[in-house]
Amino acid sequence: MLVKLLLITIGITYTSTFFSGFATYWVSDAIFPDLIQHTEGITENNTTYPELLPFFTVPIPPVIDVMAALVLAFMIGLGLSFKKEAILVQVVKDFQEIIIKVIERVIVPLLPIFILGIFSQMTFNGKVYTILSVFLKIVGIIFLMHIVLLLIQYLVAAAIAKRNPFKALLTMMPAYFTALGTQSSAATIPVTLKQVQANGVSPDIAGFVVPLCATIHLAGSIMKIVACAIALMIIQQIPYDFELIVGFILMLGIVMVAAPGVPGGAIMAAVGVLQTILGFDQQQVALMITLYIAMDSFGTACNVTGDGAIALIIDKIYKKRTMHN
């Protein structure tokens, strides 16, 4: 029974995440071209001014290819899940702690300086105002999309669980606002658990679904990344098609599993996919990071609140199977 519930939960979670990604693509592809039609050429090199160059650079080539690293990481992770007594398990856990410390103590604190440099370059070339004015509109559209996504999730969950969708969504608001502050699905788990149970979900199911969804349910995060990526490609006239975006979204759903627990973790996990699949350069990745972090709060809140909808569905399935047995 537990294995079946696990598989059902994973299936529903990824359905929600991929629905968010593809719906975001369709909305972005329909709306953004008209919104950005006056920005053609804004990212072309300005020949009037010299380019701002760093005083020095420290080139650090990757040890292995990005995609090879992702495949190796998942291969080792899946393998160790079947050999929990292996010596390599402790090595991997220690390495995980090192990476988390590097992200928290080095990369995240230095990101503002890196972003400052990128925006200084754009300001020097007269591009920053146009780019930011466009992306302010993009952020507004993404905010509306995440509200619509939550309504869809709770309308579906309420129809299955025979609940009032608006009452269920309002009950989850404490978790939503907590996530706005913590910017971490993992840190919001205690509040999410409490509000999910307040929606009538049994404690056992809540304790099973909420921690799992905090790790793999990233509908809000994938929405932000896909929307910002599409907007950036339209602005810089980078060609794309549906086949390219399908691979991008599917890979995002996999690599972002490593993101929860670290503010801004989703976009950092997605950097490799942005570079290898969409071909983004350093400046484009920096813009993506800037935009994502600016919206990180309500993206995480969308993830957390959506967990409550999934818990309602799983609880209904569990009770139905229990009564049947």
TrEMBL record:
- Where mainly located? membrane
Q: Name one Pfam family in it.
A: SDF
**Membrane-spanning residues where?**
5-27, 60-82, 102-122, 128-156, 168-193, 205-232, 244-277, 289-314
How is the protein disposed in the membrane? Multi-pass membrane protein
Gene Ontology CC annotation, any one: plasma membrane
Q: Which UniProt keywords apply?
A: Membrane, Transmembrane, Transmembrane helix, Transport
Q: Could you give a single Gene Ontology term from the biological process aspect?
A: serine transport
Q: Which SUPFAM superfamilies match?
A: Proton glutamate symport protein (SSF118215)
Gene Ontology terms, MF aspect? neutral L-amino acid:sodium symporter activity
Q: Name where it's found.
A: Membrane
PANTHER family xrefs: PROTON/GLUTAMATE-ASPARTATE SYMPORTER, SERINE_THREONINE TRANSPORTER SSTT
Q: State what protein this is by name.
A: Na(+)/serine-threonine symporter
Per the UniProt record, the source organism is Capnocytophaga canimorsus
